[in-house]
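Data availability (excerpt). The following record was deposited with the supplementary files.
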Amino acid sequence: MKTNILLTLILLTSVSAFSQNLTQTIRGRVVDKQSEVPLPGVNVVTLTEPRIGTTTDENGYYQIENVPVQRITLSFSFIGYQPVVLQSIELSSSKELVQNVAMLESTEQLDEVVVKADNEEDRVINERVNVSGRSFTVEETMRFAGSVQDVSRMASNFAGVQRTNDANNDIVIRGNSPIGLIWRLEGMDIPNPNHFGGLGATGGPVSMLNNNVLANSDFITGAFPSEYGDGLSGVFDLSMRNGNYENHEFLGQVGFNGFELGAEGPISRENRFSYLVNYRYSTLGLMSAIGLDFGTGTAVPKYQDLNIKLHFPSSKRGTIDVFALGGISSIEFLESENEEGEDGGFYSDGEDLYNDTYTGVIGASHQYFFNKDLYSKFSVALSSMGNDVKVDTLNTDRDKLTPTYRQSFQEDDLQFSGFVNKKFNVHHVLRAGAYVTYKNYNLGDSTYDSDLNAFRTLRDQNSSDWLYQPYVNWQYRITDKWEMNTGLHAMVLASNGNYSIEPRFGMSYQLTQKQSINLGYGKHSQAVPVVILYEKLRLPDGSYISPNENLDFTKSHHFVLGYDLMMKNRLHFKAEAYYQHLYDAVVTQMPSSFSSLNAGGFDFYAPDSVENGGAGCNYGLDLTLEKFMDKGFYFLSTISLYQSQYQGSDEVWRNTAFNGNYVANLLGGKEFVLGKKKQNSENRKTITLDGKVTYAGGQRYTPIDLQQSIIDGEAVYAKDDAYGAQFDPYFRADIRIGYKVSGKKVTQELALDIQNVTNSQNPFGVDYNKSTQEVETTYQLGIFPMVLYRITF
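Predicted structure:
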């Protein structure tokens, strides 16, 4: 009797002590990486103490309950498959962890499970990528100092990548123009997903893509496989995560990026249907009111955006996903409302400028499994983006405005995509598919003619076109150590009949368990920006012609050789050498220094009559040394050495606008768990310290001809010396300090992110001042503090 009472007391004490600990549930699904069929019977174990395990059910789902809140390591093992070990995953008390995993079948049939896996941290999700790719986590977009929850700014820390300026998130990849970047969301190509981004651009000051709704995704910097097209530099292949299909969860956030509300949860628990929605509204008006300068003078950017994902899985009817992304933004530079001499921002040269932009995408996909080795996926998406600009000029007495310029650009795309994926066996996988896009453009702008007392049309183009992109990829896994991906991509533009056939190749060979070499090649093409392709030229008789409508694609050959080494203590070294030859770039018909390869540069302009006759060359070496998160500490060090040159129609080789020659990044951080009882507590408190330093070659620019500018009364660039001048080297340091408290049901986080903490004066460009008749240098943002508060429950 006494023994029973004692045992009961011990059990009650254990339960009481355990109930006070912060715990959370981990759930997810495990599938075959090549065929995406669910894997039943996979062993899932937490390798951090206490070790808790389970196995996946017949549909590949698993669930582990009562896991202590901490950074955990998850192990996935299954006979006949290569094991997967995910380390240092942050587990929150207020949000269940949904960890989906794809496992690769081994070419060597194993008789028993051996839990010994290579590093999975930066391995690409798309198994057809052999070179120049890495995956990234949502945590990295929040953890890296200076990233401000923006995937583009986060990616600028990777080797081979640099920012064009501090105010925008445009990125230069291996010396290529920012417009060469492909944005893909949920498997569909999308227009520029950034606020204040113009037609044809790929960046902007603020991203519409909310990192709180994104899943782990891929970033590729060259020689990408055959499923990607219409781009020359790189790919953001992004996925939205599915909402929690068991419990409703909520998020509230306020910071520099805006006021934000998010919600997710089950639509049907029985069927695992879920929703995910996030809305954000800008706070820059409040920031301006308290005196914070974000580089726009008295103008205040305004924006709002919405992200949605609906998930409807079914083993019989197939899985249906619906996604939507939308955002609107506006800014007004009103010189008429400023005091004389007051800084009105970048657009303050005696003008009132109104700029409105919008982007919207809605799409749906259906994935259907015919059997365990064959499945298809078909998608449709409708997107629209537009940019309206109005400019009025203020007279010298500052009491009258004269209409000057009007612009209305809009592009609407209807895109269809589909592919069939067949896994013949563990060695051979074939995927064939196509992207078909119907494009409709409305390009209109006009300038005021005082003699006619009316606006004179510069462009009035309403055009439509079809872009076809079929592709095929064959994956051949010779052994577990040796893999090849061979593919073919094609592009056809219906309006002018231009086409491109593009072979792609990738290979990976594992020298040892820790070392591998990688080889990649790709021919890539990109359609000419619509503002050039549909340019209208006004003839003396008042009629218009379209001299550029038969322009061909700009093309490139990209070669990459890489080496990977995984060392002890989660230390990873990676080196890639590359060479890229570009041709059929757009240049002027008359000899000049112009080339479309400089699009996105500070002083880029679009001439009237052009042709495909330009060339370019990018080559360099990218080095990465990274320590993945281990015991609360991480660092990432990258060095890129490169050369980027181009040739215009004058046949002179020059530096491109993006040829900085070198860029180096060093960033790292440490997470501290407060309190003596770090795990067995009702509250878990952590402090994070993160920092980043960037040192890069100065930006290239075209000098201003001062004497001719004085004569003409406006800036005149010395185009014969295009990009012949270079600013001093760029230096910037960022720091981030975060404090997080995890309670039983609520997690709160407060963070301070200080960009350019040393207040370095980095040049942005040069301009001509009519008042002083001098050339002046404009500078990028100085020290810029941002505060973030987030609550999840």
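Summary of structural features: The chain has two domains: 16-117, 260-683+693-731+761-775.
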